[in-house]
Amino acid sequence: MIEIHDLVKRYGTQTAVDHLNLTVEPGQVCGLLGLNGAGKTTTMNMITGYLAPTEGQITVNGHDILEEAEEAKRCIGYLPDQPPLYTDMTVSEYLNFCAELKQLPKKERAEYIQKAVELTELQEVSGRLIRNLSKGYRQRVGLAQAILGLPDIIILDEPTDGLDPRQINEMLALIRKLGEAHTVILSSHKLSEVQLACDRIVILHQGRVIADGRPEELEQQLNAAATLTLTALADRAQVESILSGIDGISNVTLSGEDGQVTAQLEYTPSNDPRQAIFFAFADARLPLIELKTTTASLEQVFLSLTQEDAPETAEPAPDTASDVEAEPLPDTQEEEEDS
Fold first, then answer.
1. Crossing angle of helices 135-147/91-101, nearest 10°?
2. Which residues in the chain land under pLDDT 50?
3. Which pLDDT value is given to residue 181?
């Protein structure tokens, strides 16, 4: 549905997107994850035709975004990080205006608008002025214009920005529902949202793809080693002897005094040694009082991939996402009364 080949965007001597290659298949919900300045918004702006690439090619549903811009843009619904709203219009007036801009057939406009309003749950505010809506409702109005006409591709830049926890859950559920019939690209710096909404995650860093796959695949592929901690009622020499005879264990660190020793070790997740460790200590009649394992979460993997050489301002384009957040913050702005 979307093919990107050797995409480059430079601002003077600064490179925001660096020879990026990406293919998004029909029906995928693809999350672009990255720190501020990673190139997420710049990439989205080039896919939608808002920015021209310095180098490279973008094909949208078979149409080159530069040579067949009008045909390509007809396939896309776009929600920027700052929705382009006309606040002196009511919600219904604005969506009618957007339907005209998108050149939707007159006979079908009312149906498309009603569908967008229902999907984004704007029925109660459809007659209100946009300027009198809370930030959360304004975000929903922006999403409604993006899905107006039900385009094949829906691109969402920080779609949950400003929403409270309940609205975030509703938005993520809507995104998953849209993914059943549309190709969706979602940009976010909130890892928890990307994990919940997306069936594919692309991690960007300094304008390049550094990881790509399903959430569970990334956790497995990028965890080169898992960590295991055990505590045994034994002497250090006994623990060292037993662990040295078990395959797949590396980087063993012992602590504690003779009589109760704790060992921290690494192992390959595909070769879990816990069963062998249990039986080895049982055969030696040395009690294990603790045996636990931890693998790096996707958030830890993300941070480890992006913590080195991260530029402070690698992208002058308006990519306003902040660093990764584990949990969304509620939108405390209350809805004002219609004047």
1. 30
2. 309-339
3. 87
**Which of 159, 212, 176, 215 lies closest to 328, judged by CA?**
159
Q: Which amino acid is at 181?
A: A
- Tens-place pLDDT, residues 135-182: 888 988 999 999 999 999 999 998 887 778 888 888 888 888 888 889
CA distances from 39 to 30, 42, 63 (A): 15, 5, 23
CA-based nearest residue to 147, from 189, 102, 195: 102
What is residue 325's predicted lDDT score, i.e. its pLDDT? Answer: 41
Exposure class string for 83-98: b at 16+ Cβ within 10 A, else e: bebeeebbbbebbbeb
For 266, counting Cβ atoms within 10 Å of its Cβ (0-12 exposed, 13-18 middle, 19+ buried), the class is middle
What are the C-alpha distances in Å from 129 to residues 23, 80, 123, 141?
A: 40, 21, 13, 11
Q: How many CB atoms lie within 10 A of CB 218?
A: 22
pLDDT at site 62: 92
Sheet strands (E) in the chain: 2-11, 14-24, 29-33, 55-60, 63-64, 76-79, 153-157, 183-188, 200-205, 208-213, 226-232, 249-257, 260-267, 288-294
Reduced to 3 states, what is the DSSP secondary structure of residue 332? coil
pLDDT at 250: 85
Predicted TM-score (pTM) of the model is 0.71
- Say how far apart CA 145 and CA 91 lie, in whole Å: 10
Tokens representing 105 are 């057939």
